[in-house]
Specification:
70% helix; mainly alpha
Amino acid sequence: MAGVNRVRLRGQLVENYDELVKKLTRRLGSSDFAYEALHEAFLRLERVTDAVPVRSPSDYIFRTAINIAKDTKKALNHRVSASEVEALLDVCDDEPDPARVVEARSDIDAFKRALAELPARPRRVLLGIGIEGRSAHDVAVSLGVSVRTVESDLKLALSHCANCLDYTLIRRLGGPRPRSY
C-alpha cells in the first residue's frame, strides 16, 4: 500500500494534536509559534515517502516541528528590522550627485576662461596666493614687485573672476589686511 508512512503520520497528528501543541509551546515558548511550526510540519508530511518506515510517528512530527521552528528563528535573525533599514537609508552619501558634478565642472571651465582673460601678472598673483597658498610677500619677491602691487593685482584678479563666474565678491571691512613677511 502506497503512502503508509503518510497515513500513519497524519493519523498521529490528528490524534495527538493538542498534546503536540502543548509540548511545542513549552519547548518554543510561544503557542503561536508552536501552531505555526505544527502547521508547517503537517504540510511537510506530504513529502514523506515509504522508503524508510517511521517507527515513532509522534516523535517524528515533534522533531520535524522543532526543526522547522529552528529554521524559522534562524531566518528571522538574518532579516533586517524596519528600524535598521531606516537607519541604513539615512546614511549620508558623501559623493555629490550628478547635477552638482556637472555644475562644478562648468564652474571650473568658467574659472579657467576667466584666468586666461587676465593679464599675466594678476594671473600669476592669483595662482600663487589662491592656488599655491604662497604669501603675498613671497609672490611679490618672485615677481620683483611690491607687496602693495601684489595686493592690487590680487584684488583685480578676484574681481574679474567673480564677475565672470557671476559670484558676489565679499569685501572685508576694517581696512587692509596686516602684512605678513
